[in-house]
Specification:
Strand order of the largest sheet: 3-5-4
Low-confidence stretches: 1-12
Number of helices: 18
Structural class: mainly alpha
Order of helices and strands: HHHHEHHHHEHHHHHEHHHHEEH
Distance between the termini: 33 Å
Mean pLDDT: 94
Length: 379
């Protein structure tokens, strides 16, 4: 099974049944490198520009480059904000606060971090892994394009060199009017650069079937998500492997989504008697879903079998799985089962919606939302 990506892992208590690695594995059969948080072309551009400057300035030491990147990200944060104040990005709250009174200059440096931990929660933490796995650094034509691009903005290059020489330890003061002179460096990529980014970011593991379908049917697919998107993708495809993996995603979702919903529903009460569980209408309704387990892993087969069980055995199965998941995290289980009742020990994430339909409402996106967003930004 595919290993978890720490850049988009649902942290600790937010994934009490350990379902994330399951939907991740299903999505990875089609979308190989994207994470749920690597969804901004501008962020991809900023990290690409940083590496172009790394080459131009001959920054060879990784530790030096890490410090440089944090400062460069800050500079680009003010640049993108001055260019367009509407789109959000990590660190925008501080940038907006700093720019609130239209200051004449802004501060750049390691002491001026945009976030509590800029390296972990900013562009580096979210994009460095997919950036490398997609082959950005190995694509010489891409680096050539960005090196040529920075040559069109000598004032920016001068400022970047000054920041680099300071090493980030010394705070740099940058005039906000000066920033306006290079905002176009973050324009939407076009021409040859756009083609390279499409090739690197939107490739898939099924001979680019997903990209071809999007290219031919974007007017239909652009507003869809969840089951509506998956079903139309399967309809538009002539690639049998692609159709098979889409079907597996659909059936994976029909398994883990209702189990997740039932677990969250159980959390809404302090305790449940066995009679309450046996007679509960929502549990009866939500487990009634048609699943084709073809190609399922043993783990997923086991989860799927819970939907065929009576209500009490289903809930016991969820409690047992949560106990295993929390034990791996050295934490206490959220549910406690005895002979007469189920007790709830943890309520974070508790919710239910009576209108939920397990055959129509999907909870997990399998990276397709991120893919659709990036496709739209590149077209």
């Amino acid at each position: 099974m595919t290993a978890k990506d720490p850049n988009y892992t649902i942290k600790g208590s937010r994934d009490p049944l350990g379902l994330q690695v399951i939907w991740q594995s299903a999505g990875r059969n089609i979308i190989p490198h994207l994470s749920t948080v690597s969804s901004s072309i501008m962020d991809f551009q900023i990290i690409s520009l940083a590496y172009a400057y790394k080459k131009e300035l001959s920054i060879s030491d990784d530790r030096t480059f890490n410090s440089f990147f944090l400062c460069f990200e800050q500079l680009m944060a003010y640049t993108r904000f001055i260019k367009d104040r509407e789109p959000g990005f990590n660190g925008i709250d501080k940038v907006r606060r700093m720019m609130n009174n239209e200051p004449k200059e802004v501060k750049i440096g390691l002491k001026e971090q945009l976030l509590s931990n800029q390296k972990a929660y900013g562009i580096w933490g979210k994009y460095n892994r997919p950036f490398r796995e997609m082959g950005f650094l190995k694509n010489e034509e891409l680096m050539r394009c960005y090196i040529e691009k920075i040559k069109d903005f000598p004032q920016l290059t001068k400022r970047v060199k000054y920041i680099w020489k300071n090493g980030g330890d010394k705070t740099s003061h940058v005039n906000t009017k000066e920033i306006k002179s290079w905002i176009k460096i973050l324009d939407k990529p076009s021409g040859g650069l756009n083609k390279i980014l499409v090739y690197l970011i939107l490739n898939d593991k099924q001979d680019n079937e997903l990209l071809e379908i999007f290219n031919s049917n974007w007017n239909v697919l652009g507003t869809l998500n969840g089951y509506d998107l998956f079903i139309r993708l399967r309809e538009f495809s002539g690639n049998q492997n692609f159709k098979q993996f889409i079907s597996r995603i659909i059936n994976t979702e029909k398994t883990i989504s209702p189990l997740n919903r039932i677990f969250r529903y159980l959390q809404t009460k302090s305790y449940w008697s066995l009679e309450d569980i046996k007679s509960d209408e929502l549990i009866n309704l939500w487990k009634d879903v048609d699943v084709d387990p073809s190609g399922f892993s043993p783990e997923l087969m086991n989860l799927s079998s819970l939907l065929q069980s009576d209500n009490v055995q289903l809930v016991k199965g969820l409690a047992k799985r949560n106990e295993k998941v929390t034990a791996r995290r050295n934490a206490a289980p959220w549910l406690s089962f005895n002979n007469t009742e189920l007790s709830i020990n943890h309520y974070q994430g508790a919710f239910y919606n009576k209108e939920y339909n397990p055959s129509a409402h999907a909870d997990f996106n399998y990276f397709f939302n991120c893919y659709s967003s990036l496709y739209k930004q590149l077209n």
